[in-house]
Amino acid sequence: xxxIDGKATAGAIKDEIKxxxxxxxxxxxxxxxxxxxxxxxxxxxxxxVAFKIKDCQEVGxxxxxxxxxxxxxxxxxxxxxxxxxxxxxVDGFIVQLPLPDHIDEQKVIEAIDPQxxxxxxxxxxxxxxxxxxxxxxxxxPSGIVELLKRYGIETxxxxxxxxxxxxxxxxxxxxxxxxxxxxxxxTVAHSRTRDLEQLCASADILIAALGVPGFVxxxxxKEGAVVIDxxxxxxxxxxxxxxxxxxxxxxxxxxxxxxxxxxxxxxxxGPMTRVSLLSNTLKAAKRNIQR
Length: 291
Ligand code: GUN
Fold this sequence. Notes:
Layout: E1 2-3, H1 6-26, E2 33-39, H2 43-59, E3 62-68, H3 74-85, E4 92-95, H4 105-111, H5 123-130, H6 139-150, E5 159-163, H7 170-178, E6 185-189, H8 196-201, E7 205-208, E8 225-229, E9 233-236, E10 244-247, H9 252-255, E11 259-262, H10 269-290
Parallel strand pairs: 1-11, 2-3, 2-4, 5-6, 5-7, 7-8, 8-11
Antiparallel strand pairs: 9-10
Helix pairs in contact: 1-10, 2-10, 6-7, 6-10
The chain binds guanine.
């Protein structure tokens, strides 16, 4: 059994990005610039955005944080998005989700210029990904593909079961795994799937993206499978400094001994998600240089 070290892999990719930034700057270009819009004060969102800003600093990107209170009017948010779309100094930006209920999330996503949509949430980017055109791919699925590649994990002809069909992870993950560069045979499982346990146990590659802590047990995993755990549910942990700990969708202790490869939580998929946003932002910046 080999543990897939997402933290170390993300660290190596960050070094690669930093080198590219240094050479861009040495040849007279400005630093890549990521902006983030954060609405309200949700604990998880605050943490994620703080990490994104820290990551930018580490690789030499400029970053901007635009904050709104949770009673912000939709028009006000859309006006800011329009301003960022037209700002030549910003290569890419994200609107941290979830948004308050009175704001139409899909309308917000569709207001972002697809060329600056480094989250890869805009339907233009999703559609381009589906038909294999250059696009921004959302950070978690692209981070997982990068892990599989860097660990030299065989995917061609393998049966990949994706648990979950969210727009951000499960759905795009299933699309990527079936692409010609990866060539897996993909099943997307969800809350209405029958015989789920048996289905999971037939997977060569099992990608758990349900957000249900401890859902995947040893009985659901084939001997020698590759297990990718996308779950990062915060559970209370009074003994920690933050007061919580991250729990994956997989019962690691019982599943790991059966696996050829497994990602831990934390330190598996999470760091790769963070670094994929940096890769997308660098791509946006380089495209702006070419134009
Ligand atoms: N909320 C949870 N994950 C994400 C993400 O990757 N991007 C944004 N913008 N919001 C999120």
